[in-house]
Amino acid sequence: MNATDYLIYTLADGEFHSGVELGDGLGVTRTAVWKTLDKLKELGLEVESVKGKGYRLQEPLDLLRIEDIQGELEEDVAARLQKIDVFTALDSTNQWMLSRTKEASGAICRVCLAEFQTTGRGRRGRNWQSPFAKNLCLSVGYTFSEGFSALEGLSLAVGVMVAQALQPYRLADLQLKWPNDIWVHRKKLGGILIEINGEQSGPCHVVIGLGLNVLMRQSDIEHIDQAWTSLVQESEVPLSRSALAGCVINSLVRGLELFEREGFAAFRDRWLELDGLRGHSVYVAGAANLDGIAQGIGNHGHLLIETAEGVKEVAAGEVSVRCA
Ligand code: BTN
Fold first, then answer.
1. How far is it, in rounded angstroms, from Cα 315 to Cα 302?
2. How far is CA 282 from the centre of its chain?
3. For residue 110, what pLDDT is reported?
4. Using one digit for the tens of pLDDT, what is the confidence trace for 45-67?
5. Helix residue ranges per DSSP H, the chain
6. Mapped to the 3 state alphabet, what secondary structure does 119-164 carry?
């Protein structure tokens, strides 16, 4: 464990720790401790320093613990997964996993999580913000033996898998917004970013990135340009980020295996039940540039929009809902 991680894990309890105690643990002087504490600020962690007492974080952290995540895994999922990596900080879990796929000599099925991403990526070139140890930033690397065409509908299916993992949290009004935002009360709880590394035909490595708001509150973040919410604000069920990560991994690994066998057809009915756009007046930006009423999805997961010129299918785009 490096010095920064040591300090994070020690201070995570929210209690005071003296400079001497921290220095002894790290085997360095108090001045060296002070310099490392400065690095925590770069991760967005506020450290309070009180003379005679030492240092503490402004609030305790619910850090991801690999043993707790593994303890939640179903037997078949644990057997199928090659590895879980948990990082304190990364540029982007998707980027990290994409690099692993480039090095892979065979099929992969692995997961990585980070407490903090310095350049977290969202869809359509946006960035994805997530304060340290508040949410889930998770990527799954998975190899599909067929080429790109077999991946049709995958991003929608992943939305269904995440919704399934959230069932124990008894969320009222959990919906999916095409193509794959997770909504609660029509506010964004999470988003999915799928990136692919492979050939048009033949095996391809897919990276499924999930950002899920868990403990984040309005005061934790400066500005997000859309309405959002988090599990702590919507669920009465006690939260542990590691237990949640385990549930999500179970659902994703099993879901990806099912998708590989049966394709989007196995998820389409559930997606339609969760559709948060149906019957709403929407505008689709991008190449489609359409106005109309959302009418569900077709067999391949394309959005159906009823327009003045008839029903149109949209394969990709950004949907905004028009106010009633
Ligand atoms: C969206 O724009 O709705 C998709 C957001 C996806 C964010 C996640 S966080 C984990 C993974 N790593 C990234 O850099 N992005 C995805």
1. 5
2. 26
3. 98
4. 999 999 999 999 999 999 999 99
5. 3-11, 19-26, 30-42, 66-72, 75-80, 93-103, 154-165, 231-234, 241-262, 265-274
6. CCECHHHCECCCCCCCCEEEEEEEEECCCHHHHCCHHHHHHHHHHH
**In the chain, helix, strand, coil percent, each to 5?**
35, 30, 35
Please report the pLDDT score of residue 158 as a whole number.
98
Calpha distance 315→298 (Å, rounded): 10
- The ligand 1 atom nearest the CA atom of 123: 2
Q: How far apart are CA 2 and CA 68, in angstroms?
A: 21
CA distances from 13 to 7, 48, 233 (A): 11, 13, 22
Nearest CA-CA partner of 81 in 99, 107, 115: 107
pLDDT number for residue 225: 81
The tokens describing 100, both together, are 């692993």
- For residues 107-140, one letter each, b for 16 or more C-beta atoms within 10 angstroms of the residue's C-beta and e for the rest, the string is ebbbbbbbbbbeebbebeeeebbbbbbbbbbbbb
Would the CB of 208 count as within 6 Å of ligand 1? no
Pick the catalytic residue from 56, 110, 134, 188. 188
For residue 324, what pLDDT is reported?
A: 54
Q: Which atom of ligand 1 is nearest to the CA of 191?
A: 3
Please give the Cα distance from 3 to 234 (Å, whole number).
Answer: 36
Answer whether 121 contacts ligand 1 (Cβ < 6 A): yes
Query: Is 261 known to be catalytic?
Result: no
Residue 298 has phi, psi (to 5 degrees) of: -85, -175
Say whether 123 is catalytic.
yes
Predicted confidence at residue 237, as pLDDT, reads: 94
Residue 11's pLDDT is 97
Q: How far apart are CA 210 and CA 208, in angstroms?
A: 7
pLDDT in tens, 18-47: 999 999 998 888 888 888 898 899 899 999
* Positions in the chain short of pLDDT 70: 323-324
HSE on the CB side for 270, CA within 13 Å? 16
